[in-house]
Design a protein that fits this description.
homodimer, 327 residues, alpha+beta, 60s Ribosomal Protein L30, Chain: A, Phosphoribosyl-aminoimidazole Synthetase, Chain A, domain 2, 2 domains, seven-stranded mixed sheet, 29% helix, globular
């Protein structure tokens, strides 16, 4: 019995047909054996299109796996554009010798994550490369979402006086992956925050709250995201260290490993800006983990961290990589 | 000066911003630095969604490169569904140390190929993995096309009596890549057949020719594609060896390397079935390289090759891989 992926599984021949039938189509009932998927666009909707590749290491970590991450990542890119996630594609690049059981697990995980987000995996592609030519498995997900015609979030819609909110604790995904990679664990366990953001965004938009900007906090963490949003605009972002939601385990791990939680990635968190009058309602809709973490003033495109001891330091994007391959 | 891709180029930080600005956005002017691309769907159109990853080796070969292949592959999946290619995504997974000049070349090649096909590259993602964790570069392209509501090609729309046509010589892509890999060359050079198929499909549909099925001939070659199309249907496909368009260089290379041209991949060829009354017009529209290569009869889902010496042999999908990593 074959229990590993062979080069021939990527061939377009009979072995590949077996793999598709027994693994891929079994997990993704909406994928047809055609060159693509056909769909009707709901009347009055605009389309949002996004893509993301995932190379996380290890593949399985507390609170998730590469499959769940791959679906949520693309779902969240759509949600940040104000679009309801609808159709997802799955592009697999697999190293020869990869365990078929792990592949089944990952596909099942993708299928569950899509269902949770209200999206369907409708088209896919599978390639196999030789042993040593890839590190186990890489996954690309692309996504199509449908946005209301009223759509329009953009860094330049943020106004002086707007309040900055995040929907939950920072850096939990990055630290969970790092712990998985190093084989250490926390008590109680610290799960990745990987989650679909559309339900929260839908609740906000449904309540008539239209953020100036929304951005998921992934690679580079809050610090890089804020720096990117402020850059080039006549605005400064002010972050209040005392208000940043950082789990005690994340804080401790950062102390020990020498990371700054401001730059550690999340995969189920986002930053948004709202007018002062909408802060209370926004926090209520986002739930108890959300926090108001600062505000925007007129300025010159800078980000400042107002520290707990009363200092002010500039927040700049990291030049390079603090935690490689966390997504 | 940095002339290679560093791990930090995939970080979400300042190095990544540089890479995006100087390489990716420079090549793809339609890509915005947001989480996705927004588009209006033309009224009355249905959407087709497809994805494909490319791991070809070598990256550059006679007549093309991985970038051109990646765009044409997705354009062709859309064309085979009768959809006009509109929006393309570009997901890059790059090995640390990859030459920035090669990346620039590949992105420029993608941009040109998209333009040739009338499509736009509108969204992207870039990941970097460590040295030895991937083989130079892998590219995912996903695509959205717009199909007329009259759409509907499917293997079960093929009828007994239909004629099978291909639009050009078989196996030229596979042999060109193999020659590139082995460092051998032909005189005159044999270029890959990689090309966008939409112009030919558009011409057919515009002339009122609606094929029963269209399928691009990629991995597994004509033999695997025909076997897949016939499987499970009350039809047999009959291929006439004497009618198969095989370039003399492809035939000779297959002889020497032990390949069967029936199973060597193309990247700009497709098989289609039309009723006997439409054969002449179809061949005229597809141009002088096209050929009528056989016909369909009532049967039991089999494919037969009628050989030049008067024999008949069954054509089955290959179990595994004859030429790995040709796309």
């Amino acid at each position: 019995m074959i229990d590993k992926v062979l080069l021939g599984h990527g061939s377009g021949g009979a072995l590949m047909a077996d793999l598709l039938k027994n693994v891929v189509f079994a997990a993704f009932p909406d994928v047809q054996p055609t060159d693509g998927a056909l769909a009707d666009v709901p009347a009055g909707m605009r389309l949002v299109f996004t893509t993301d590749s995932f190379v996380v290491k290890p593949l399985f970590f507390p609170g998730g796996d590469i499959g769940r991450l791959a679906v949520n990542g693309t779902v969240n890119d759509l949600a940040m554009m104000g679009a309801e996630p609808a159709l997802i594609s799955c592009g697999l690049i697999i190293e020869e010798g990869f365990a078929l059981d792990d592949l089944r697990w990952i596909c099942a995980s993708m299928s569950r994550a899509a269902m949770e987000a209200g999206a369907r995996i409708v088209t896919g592609d599978t390639k196999v490369v030789g042993h040593g030519e890839a590190d186990s498995i890489f996954i690309n997900t692309s996504g199509i979402g449908y946005a209301q015609p009223v759509y329009g979030f953009s860094p330049d819609r943020v106004k002086a006086g707007d309040v900055i909110i995040v929907n939950g604790g920072l850096g939990e995904h990055g630290i969970a992956v790092m712990a998985g990679r190093l084989g250490v664990s926390f008590a109680p366990e610290l799960p990745s925050d990987s989650a679909p953001l559309w339900p929260q965004v839908k609740a906000l938009l449904g309540a008539g709250i239209v953020p100036g900007v929304m951005r998921d906090i992934t690679r580079g963490g809050l610090g890089s995201v804020a720096a990117e949003l402020a850059a080039g605009l006549p605005l400064d972002y002010h972050l209040r260290e005392a208000c940043l939601p950082v789990d005690a385990r994340v804080a401790k791990a950062c102390d020990i490993w020498g990371f700054d939680p401001l730059y550690v990635a999340s995969e189920g968190r986002f930053l948004l800006s709202v007018g002062p009058a909408q802060v209370e309602e926004t926090l209520r809709l986002l739930g108890p983990a959300a926090a108001s973490i600062g505000e925007v003033s007129a300025g010159t495109g800078r980000v400042f961290l107002h520290t707990t001891v009363g200092g002010v330091r500039p927040v700049r994007p990291l030049p390079g990589e603090m935690l490689p391959r966390i997504c």
